[in-house]
Amino acid sequence: AIGNSLQNLELLQQITLIFAYTQVGDTGAVAIGNNLQKLEQVQHIILRFEGTEVGDVGAVAIGHGLQTLAQLQKLRLDFTCTQVGNDGAVAIGNSLQNLELLQQITLI
Q: In which band, very low, low, confident or very high, does the pLDDT at 9 lie, cut at 50, 70 and 90?
């Protein structure tokens, strides 16, 4: 529900979503990732998934969602104590390549 509600917030400039130590998994992360790309004006994102069941599938979706956010300036992602492995980390890394306005990144 949260992920899908993002699609109606095109003018949003800052978003913080904290799912720490909840039962959120890949399904929730995929919903968020799929709708992040609709936030064309967003400049600052904090997504905290530490201690959740998110894995590579969810991280890949988050990466795909991030890669089109041309206005993004600050990003903080926390996947501590999750199931994210190499595939998810590579997808997140690749998603940052074209974000020319990005000034600050924190990846945990």
A: confident
Sequence-distant (≥ 6) Cβ neighbours of residue 83 within 8 angstroms? 53, 54, 55, 56
Tell me, what's the pLDDT at 2? Answer: 64
Q: Which amino acid is at 102?
A: L
Number of C-beta neighbours around residue 37 at 10 A: 16
* Residue 1 clears pLDDT 90, i.e. is over it: no
* Contact partners, residue 27, CB within 8 Å, separation at least 6: 58
Tokens standing for 46? 């904090």
User: Beta 44-48 vs 104-107: how paired, if at all?
Assistant: unpaired
Does the CA dihedral 48-98-94-31 come out positive or negative?
positive
Average pLDDT of the residues in 59-70:
96
